[in-house]
Amino acid sequence: MLKELIKKDEIAAMKARDKAKVSVLRLVSAGIKAFEVNERETISDEGVIKIIEKNIKQTREALEYAKQANNEEKIAEGNFTLEVLTPYLPEQLSEEEVMGMLKEIIASGNYTASDMGKIMKEIMPKVSGKFDRSKINPMVKSLLG
């Protein structure tokens, strides 16, 4: 299970005295623990992936602000966090693969521009954890014209 892998890597980072990596992995572990306490159930791999995706999204947003402020230290910190977290995600889909899936969905459902929500509802479960969700909306808009 992904949860155990993260815990094992966190312990290995502690033994190696890699404080930066320990910090990133503890953030994920805290999210996992919070979920399990709040929901009173053991988290699934999908749940762990959602927590990792959330952390990656927050890191990317922070990176944008750091780049605007030209804060080299925060940029390096953000890039390191992404390096640590990305390997825990499933194999990523390419834009071409997602575009092909979207074309298939649109063709099979005879969707129009007003059916954006229906298309998004259909594609999201297929790409969850495998593609940056923020890129899907513009892709759908470009296909619908």
UniProtKB/TrEMBL annotation:
InterPro entries found in the cross-reference section: Asn/Gln_tRNA_amidoTrase-B-like, GatB_Yqey_C_2, YqeY/Aim41, YqeY/Aim41_N
Pfam families: YqeY (PF09424)
SUPFAM superfamilies listed in its UniProt record: GatB/YqeY motif
Domain of life according to the entry: Bacteria
Gene3D superfamilies: 1.10.10.410, Uncharacterised protein YqeY/AIM41 PF09424, N-terminal domain
Endpoints of the signal sequence: none
Stored PANTHER family: ALTERED INHERITANCE OF MITOCHONDRIA PROTEIN 41, MITOCHONDRIAL
Name of the molecule in the record: GatB/YqeY domain-containing protein
UniProt organism field: Clostridium ganghwense
